[in-house]
Design goal:
There is one protein chain. The chain has 356 residues and is an alpha/beta fold. The chain contains 14 helices and 14 strands. Strands 2-1-5-6-7-8 form a six-stranded parallel β-sheet, sandwiched between helices. The chain has a six-stranded parallel β-sheet with strand order 11-10-9-12-13-14, sandwiched between helices. Strand 9, helix 7 and strand 10 form a beta-alpha-beta unit. Helix 7 crosses helix 12.
Length: 356
């Protein structure tokens, strides 16, 4: 049995902080074990620096230094991508693979962003292999950091099979899944909903309210000002059966994200046969995909455009033919979604090549 040392961020199992990356790490751990790997897990703990929880070089170095020479190590990119010094120190001793959910340099546009990108590029160039969770992320890394294409592999997130949703004939139950933070575009969503005529719709926003309390408070106030507070519900983070129930009640998943490398909420909705209205950014079009025959199971709109989002919502709510078309496409796409077993097999192939 081959041993894999899996290095993950602290809080990977914290129900108050659900994320696609945490879900991916946990499902991968289970999937690799089912394939015969002995998975040994290590958490790297963040430290408080100027009021911000960050991974430090010393914390990352301490964990990597404990691992046996020649060991096959898979490190979450949240931990490793900004730690070029720690990676360089152990690269000759360990067989390192970095799992990149979200390139850290992607979110950095100011002066400090150049430093982050330089460190991330140095770290990723030094490891034996890189795994990304979407084709879009792979292209971004190759174009931005000039990585060797032969060392960068895609393993898209899997999805669990789910019962198909019958759906309300009027399509009025809207669902948004994601932490309530500016990057997810809830402000754009609320502005768009206020422009939708009629009052029959309801929108349930599922996601953590703890990451940016100030933004959440502003958003609630804005919903009141726009007259939609009674139709928009913020549930906080949900998981397990509670999250499944939210998908089961939904007619349309709506995401106004300003950037996504993939979009696991999209494929989870499609697994229930729920169509998607999403922004045309990053890996979201890839996650939406197409049903056999080429039909897209949703609508894509530009980001940061409340008017475009409102127009698409009006189309959905006002056109029974469109709803039927998109629901049929979602049912077709549902049958083509990747499984977690396939995801684990893709990563296992990379790890086997590195382990030798």
């Amino acid at each position: 049995m081959t041993v894999l040392h899996l290095v993950v961020p602290d809080g990977v199992d914290d129900p108050a902080r659900p994320s696609g990356g945490n879900t991916y790490d946990r499902r991968l751990c289970t999937g690799l074990a089912a394939l015969g790997w002995e998975v040994r897990e290590y958490e790297v703990h963040r430290e408080n620096r100027c009021g911000e929880a960050v991974f430090t070089t010393s914390a990352v170095s301490e964990v990597l230094a404990r691992l046996p020479s020649g060991g096959c190590v898979l490190v979450d990119g949240l931990v490793a991508s900004d730690q070029a010094e720690a990676v360089r120190a152990e690269a000759d001793r360990l067989r390192l693979v970095v799992l990149v959910h979200l390139p850290l340099g992607l979110a950095e546009a100011d002066g400090a962003g150049a430093d982050v990108r330089a460190r991330e590029a140095a770290a990723l160039r030094r490891v034996d292999a890189v795994v990304t969770t979407s084709r879009w992320t792979r292209r971004w890394l190759l174009d931005t950091y000039g990585l060797d294409p032969s060392r960068v592999t895609v393993a898209v997130p899997g999805v669990d099979p789910a019962p198909a949703v019958a759906g309300d004939p009027c399509g009025r139950h809207l669902l948004c899944v994601g932490a309530v933070i500016p990057a997810k575009g809830h402000d754009v969503l609320v502005e768009a909903l206020a422009r939708v005529t009629g009052t029959g719709w309801v929108c349930t926003c599922v996601g953590s309210l703890e990451r940016d309390p100030g933004f959440v408070e502003w958003l609630r106030t804005r919903a009141v000002e726009l007259g939609v507070a009674d139709q928009v519900q913020f549930t906080g983070a949900l998981s397990g059966t509670a999250l499944d129930a939210a998908y089961a009640r939904a007619d349309l998943l709506v995401t106004a994200s300003r950037g996504e490398t993939y979009g696991m909420a999209v494929t989870e909705a499609l697994a229930h046969g729920v169509p998607v209205l999403a922004t045309r950014v990053g890996g979201l079009p890839e996650a939406v995909g197409r049903a056999p025959g080429g039909r897209r199971p949703g609508i894509l709109v530009p980001p940061d455009d409340p008017g475009a989002l409102a127009g698409a919502l009006e189309q959905w709510l006002g056109d029974p033919g469109l709803r039927a078309h998109l629901r049929a496409a979602a049912e077709g796409r549902r049958a083509t979604l990747p499984t977690w077993a396939a995801t684990s097999a893709d990563v296992a192939q990379v790890l086997a090549g590195v382990a030798g």
